[in-house]
Design goal:
The chain is of the alpha/beta class. Helices cover about 45% and strands about 10% of the residues. It has nine helices and five strands.
């Protein structure tokens, strides 16, 4: 019997799929797509919670005391750093630490790790009603994404930039969940499809 490939998904509400069914979250859709490609992948182990910032994700990972490694690791974190007004400098330090942890969980093989950029919540109905400046939100998201991209590329880890596509939600309500803030199953499907197309897992 073929051993199932293991998958660790690290993040926040965008990883757990807030406001959609668990099966519609991007990690679960990704597993389904990889199975269609003939890869036997187990259900994802998810360490993520709505509202988490980089320091909270790091603390949760440490609390889990994970002593296993994974064939595939995804990391998407930072929107709550931006939302709470945390400094880009702190994000730079903590994201780098999280990426190092992710690589460690991936058997030290960076080609097993995939970083996903932060989507732009500034285009959502929630942002419109928040009283915050949408252009400022977008500009700050770009700053945080430039940081995580530079760190990711320097580590030779794959980087999936979904931010431009997330901004299409300004003209397409079907890309946003019913809560008016989080991505819909349709948007998560786009992410999962792009990830599935790019994932080339090394031989075990």
């Amino acid at each position: 019997m073929t051993k199932q490939l293991s998958y660790l998904a690290l993040g926040d509400s965008y990883t757990i799929g807030e406001a959609v069914e668990q099966s519609a979250s991007f990690p679960h859709q990704l597993v389904a797509l990889l199975k269609e490609k003939g890869l036997e992948v187990s259900e994802p182990k998810v360490i993520a919670k709505t509202g988490w910032t980089t320091d909270e994700l790091k603390a949760a990972i440490e609390q889990e005391k994970i002593n296993e490694t994974f064939d595939l690791v995804t990391l998407l974190i930072g929107v709550n750093n931006q939302y709470r007004g945390y400094s880009p400098e702190v994000y730079k330090k903590e994201f780098a630490e999280l990426l190092e942890m992710a690589i460690g969980f991936a058997k030290g093989e960076q080609q097993r790790v995939y970083v996903v950029s932060i989507p732009d919540w500034g285009v959502t109905e929630f942002a419109q009603q928040s009283g915050r400046n949408q252009q400022t939100i977008s500009e700050e998201i770009d700053v945080f994404n430039e940081i995580n991209k530079q760190i990711t590329v320097a580590k030779q880890v794959s980087y999936l930039d979904i931010t431009p596509a997330s901004r299409e939600a300004v003209n397409d309500n079907s890309l946003i969940a019913k809560d008016g803030l989080h991505p819909s199953e349709k948007m998560y499907q786009q992410w999962a499809q792009r990830l599935a197309a790019s994932i080339k897992l090394p031989s075990k």
